[in-house]
Amino acid sequence: MEFLKSAKRSAASEDPNTQATVARMLAEIEAGGEAKALEYCRKLDDWDGEVLTTESQRHAARDATPERLKQDIHFAYERVSAFAQAQKNSIQSFEVELSAGLFAGQKLIPMTTAGCYVPGGRYAHIASAIMSVATAKVAGVPNVIACSVPRPNEGIHPAILYAMDVSGADSILQIGGVQGVAALAFGLFTGKPADILIGPGNKFVAEAKRQLFGRCGIDMVAGPTEIGIIADASADPEIVAVDLVGQAEHGPDSPAWLFTTSAELAAAVMKRVPELIATLPDTQRIAAAAAWEDYGEVILCRSREEVVEVSDRYAAEHLEVQAEDPAWWQASLSSYGSLFVGEESTVAFGDKCSGPNHILPTRGAARYTGGLCAQKFLKIVTYQRQTIEATREIAAVTARISRGEGMEAHARTGDARLAKYFPGEEFELSASL
Questions:
Q1: Are 215 and 228 contained in the same domain?
Q2: Which tens digit of pLDDT belongs to each residue from 284-298?
Q3: Each residue of 196-241: pLDDT tens digit?
Q4: Domain total for the chain?
Q5: Domain span including residue 93
Q6: CA distance 79 to 71
Q7: Is there a domain that residue 7 lies in?
Q8: What are the residue numbers of the active site?
Q9: Are 24 and 127 part of one and the same domain?
Q10: Predicted structure pTM score
């Protein structure tokens, strides 16, 4: 393979002070509680209003959101919820008889409280509210708490607040950043600590979730959003370039990768991307230009098999295939957060409204995990029960294995039952080592 354009920076280029800053903030907020969280809210977000939203504020957000946008939010909510329900239905509780009298089963138990973080800094991430809150409610979580960054003197963006409300959020907090994540994890303002933290955010939000993992669950440690596009000579370079820029506008550290077998397509795309970026409004243009300059890559491969190898190594959060024989690519690729097959499908559709969740693994994590799904909010627990007769065999095997491991007390729990249930009967209970 040949790098026609290489990235100047990587995730390793990030500020090393983030970890220390987040650790200090979390410790201070845990010790100082709501007062300390509010102090950070005033200092970092210039917000001095109420944190816990009221029903009247939800109504106000509904009134402030344009009617067409409300219809679009419902469109997205219906598809995201339907896909989450299909995911939930794909896994079931069951019970099986493993041997005579020995029954084992699986139960699906929703978590009690989910904390959903919805970013609201550079852009109003309406869709993220739907992706996290709606999926948690479909999974059956009884208490979903959502939070987002308040704007000075205004609070949460009304469309974000409306999307949270439509999606079923039980409580909505006007607080963002590390202090927002801490409020969810510690149960501030609601008295209900989150069992799991969900949702994307900046590097401080991601680091806060990472440090809190263990005392509560997390969906993943998400980095900046990524796009990978696989394209061959049959692809339209304009569409490829547009899609790369479409993700690069997320921020100055958002990787955009093109994997191709066509030098001509690569040249056309590399020429077109800067031209498209130059036409964007200032905020988006600055972000996309930095992302393409520092994190953009174009890799020319000798064969489609090599493209698969390279793509699976990168494990892009979003991966588009704009190439001939799409069924072959879908069958051959194995590492991606979500796959968009064919020119007709694009990352933005998945990001906003088409159905599958857009909270996805980044930084190569797609090699070992997928994105947010209904199952993430379900505890898959097991149970077992057995008859006295089944205990005859199970207890003897347990005793022998335990003694083979040197765990005498374990062995005696089997001995005790055999002595009680089958008095006077002889069993081989020693380890044959």
A1: no
A2: 999 999 999 999 999
A3: 999 998 899 999 999 999 999 999 888 899 999 999 999 999 999 9
A4: 3
A5: 18-219+375-380
A6: 13
A7: no
A8: 317-318
A9: yes
A10: 0.91
